[in-house]
Hints:
Blueprint: H1 2-10, E1 15-18, H2 23-28, E2 40-44, E3 49-54, E4 68-73, H3 79-87, E5 92-95, H4 101-110, E6 115-118, H5 120-127, H6 132-154, H7 164-177, E7 180-190, E8 211-220, E9 233-239, H8 244-263, H9 270-283, E10 295-297, E11 304-308, E12 321-324, E13 327-330, E14 334-337, E15 340-345, E16 348-351, E17 360-362
Parallel strand pairs: 1-5, 3-4, 5-6, 9-17
Antiparallel strand pairs: 1-2, 2-3, 7-8, 8-9, 10-11, 12-15, 13-14, 15-16
Bound molecules: zinc ion (3 copies).
One zinc ion (ZN) binds near residues 217, 234 and 339.
Amino acid sequence: MARVRTAMAAADVDVLLLSVGPDLPWLIGYEAMPLERLTMLVVPADAEASLVIPAFEVPRVVVRDELFTVRAWGETEDPVDIVAQLVGSASRAAIGDHTWSRFLVGLQRRLSSAAWVAAGEVTSPLRAVKDEAEIARLQAAASGVDRVAAALQSGEIPLVGRTEADVSAELSQRILAEGHAKVNFAIVASGANAASPHHHASDKVIGPGEVVLCDFGGTTAEPEGEPGYCSDITRCVYTGEPPAEFVEAYAALQDAQARSVAAAEAGTPAEAVDRVARDRLAEAGLATWFIHRLGHGIGVEAHEDPYLVDGNAEPLVAGNAFSIEPGFYVPDTWGARIEDIVIATAQGPVALNEVDHDLAVVDR
Ligand code: ZN
Ligand code: ZN
Ligand code: ZN
């Protein structure tokens, strides 16, 4: 909260308003219900913060008197009026990026002289730099999905003859069993479906002789009042002996991924890390098929700052946590991606995912 207030002063923000979305649990450990009943933390630059919340949600709040007071509202009150009164005469307000527009529009009507900015301008740079406790949660999340990936690679999770959706459901169960409170996605893309980076697991039955790309992650389960952190991993397995052409392309991808992990040093511009993978894939004639950015930051949100993409010249800083996930996607043919979560530290990049990066060959 102290760092948020400092950032508010630097950005000339008089009040910060946080509702649904990851900023609120990151800051006070409470996740707002995405409902028509408004929950909003009001943080004035020069006064105590207030959590405006439906009265019957109060039992879920872990009270932290040093951070905020609770302003419960009853069913016949108008919470937008309550927030507007707390905001008072603020001339510049920052509002949470995920806030429903009906609430923003209501506040704009009542606070017609205020200028509005996205809260991400205040919170994103802070959220992008993880402290030790946050890194420990990201590590626990990564280790959990590593164990699920190991079960895929060893053949413990059968693939041939099952639908992608069925395998996706099993991955989801295993993610939950590995210390996650929720599953954010469990992509299973087999054969030509692997050419679509965000393919939705379908009713297609996985056959022998196919690549199976699995990209999955969730949010860790934490004690009440503490935010969960995200995992995100991609590994590929082949059902039977892969053709030489695929083995060759995969080897280039694996090398590109390892090189870009090694390049992700604090002080290196984010786009330069993306470039390392792209140049290596170009050598193998695969650059045309690498159709997305190299990676995204990760924390309480699955995708957040910093983004490893051409055009982002911001240098990485120690404490940044991000994915490194190059891929190639050949339409109607196949695709592959390898993804780890990496932390930039003063001692160099540290990959949190340690499970094998080789193309696993399974026989069932
Ligand atoms: Zn993705
Ligand atoms: Zn992923
Ligand atoms: Zn990712």
